Amino acid sequence: MLNSAQVRSHFPALAANPDAIFFDNPGGTQVVQEVIQRMQHYYHYCNANHGGAFRTSQQSDAVVEEARQAMADFLNAARPEEIIFGQNMTSLTLHISRSLARTLQPGDELVVTRLDHDANIAPWLLIAEDRGCHIRWVDFHPEDCTLDMEEMERQITPRTKIVAVGYASNAVGTINDVQRVVQLAHSVGALCFIDAVQYAPHKAIDVQTLDCDFLACSAYKFYGPHIGILYGKYEHLERLTAYKVRPADNNPPHKFETGTQSFESIAGVLGVMDYLSWLGTTFGADLAHPGHFSGRSLALKQGMAVIEAYEVGINQTLLAGLRSVPGLHVWGITDPERLHQRVPTFSFTLQNWSPRAIAVALAKENIYVWDGNYYALAVMERLGLEEHGGMLRVGLAHQNTREEIDIMVAVLQKLVK
Questions:
Q1: What CA–CA distance (Å, rounded) separates 411 from 408?
Q2: Which domain holds residue 335?
């Protein structure tokens, strides 16, 4: 079982801000000390550009390739060359979408959902406009904010070329059946692109089991530095044309890593993997896990299993607390028996209070939350909330505690009184 005191000791920001309650995790988590140590080490000993004949450049390249292998272990990619680093998920998606656009013809169809972050909608709208393609939208059920899978089946047709879907909603926490979506896409010869930014901090990902074609996530959403990661099947990365400068390496993954990368941030990704491995070996040895993993891959899967097991409990505590506040409406799955179908990202509205006013009131009590649409524009428009300021979002992670939840709930109860 996870020991909160031990876990929290790995987060320097918690000690530096002892009065703060960080419930802003979906926008970006605090980093662990292992990240800072890896980045400091890089600056001290390896700081150089890529591809040089000299020692620090070679050491820098070695750090990048080690981090690439670590991310391959984290996602269970078949090979490290399937891992691309970039500024963030949005930039990586826009970049790869331009390469995918070259494969499209007028009249081809692209499927997007109204439950997604706009970073997994706008890139596909843009290339559809450029190439004369049609966009087909998949709706969600407003009553529990779950994806309409029957409509997904109807919208995927023989003309479909790309299906874009989120693994978990950054607005309402819903976990989607992405494996089924991948199967539906592949049944008509289409590619499937998964936005796993909101899912990755909470549960293990196995891209080989999913059989997805592309999957994107962001390290700063799971205790790391500001950097994005894109997984792509090697066969796709090899055949796609990359938009890059002419002298650059034309082999995956380097052909998609344009310009000079943030090598220190890539070093920080190794720190995340160090931490998650520690979490797994320290607290996860007794948890069930697939038998075919070993070494770091096993430790990472155990680490994510520890996080998932702990978050089941704080999910229940937060939901019960929010439902005790008069006039508060939680959007999304609220059935205690279905909490395994969501991540601990809860958004709500409160009668007679704007989301911004609630955020300001909580901030005065050193409780950090987000309000607005968090770039889930389609969600807010579908629910009729965009013109009213969106929702108030409370996003938990495994370093949060039940005591912190109780403090926030008490403040909310005072507000309504």
A1: 5
A2: 4-31+295-416
CB under 8 A, 24+ apart: contacts of 57-66: 60/263, 63/263, 63/266, 63/267, 63/270, 64/261, 64/263, 64/266, 64/267, 66/270
**Alpha-carbon distances, residue 50 vs 186, 301, 305 (angstroms):** 37, 31, 36
| Residues 126-143 pLDDT 10s | 999 999 999 999 999 999
pLDDT of residue 288: 61
Q: Could you tell me the pTM of the whole model?
A: 0.97
Q: How high is the pLDDT of residue 290?
A: 57
HSE toward the beta carbon, residue 371, CA cutoff 13 A? 19
Chain mean position to CA 385: 23
347: in domain: yes
Q: Which two tokens stand for residue 237?
A: 């990365």
Compute how many other C-beta atoms are within 10 angstroms of the C-beta atom of residue 307.
24
Sheet architecture: strand order including 345-350: 328-331, 345-350, 391-395, 370-372
CA 94 to chain centre: 16
Q: What is the pLDDT of residue 157?
A: 98
- Res 289: pLDDT: 60
Per-residue confidence (pLDDT) for residue 275, from 0 to 100: 98
CA dist., res. 170 & res. 251, Å (int) = 33
- Rounded CA gap, 281 and 138, in Å? 41
- CATH number of the domain within which 341 lies: 3.90.1150.10
The verdict on 122 and 261 lying in the same domain is yes
In the chain, which residues have pLDDT < 70?
288-291
pLDDT for res 292: 82
For residues 64 and 155, membership in a common domain is answered with yes
Same domain, 191 and 155: yes
85 backbone dihedrals φ, ψ, rounded to 5°: -100, 145
290 belongs to a structural domain: no
Q: How many domains does the chain have?
A: 2
How confident is the model over 302-336, as pLDDT tens digits?
999 999 999 999 999 999 999 999 999 999 999 99
DSSP 24: B
Q: Based on the fold, state whether residues 26 and 127 are members of the same structural domain.
A: no
Q: Please state, in angstroms and rounded to a whole number, the distance separating the CA atoms of residues 361 and 411.
A: 9
The verdict on 115 and 185 lying in the same domain is yes
